[in-house]
Amino acid sequence: MGFFTDTSVCIGCKACEVACKEWNMIPEDGLDFTAMSLDNSGGLSADTWRHVAFIEQRKPIGVQETGVGRPEGAPDPVDLGMPSFELPGASAGEEERGEFRWLMSSDVCKHCTHAACLDVCPTGSLFRTEYGTVVVQEDICNGCGYCIPACPYGVIGKREDDGRVWKCTLCYDRLGEGQEPACAKACPTDSIQFGDLDELRERADERLRSLHDAGIESAQLYGRDPDDGVGGDGAFFLLLDEPEVYGLPPDPVVTTRDLPSMWRHAGVAAAALLAGITATFIGGRR
Question: Any residues with CB less than 8 A from the CB of 141 and at least 6 apart, and which?
Answer without folding.
Answer: 123, 125, 164, 165
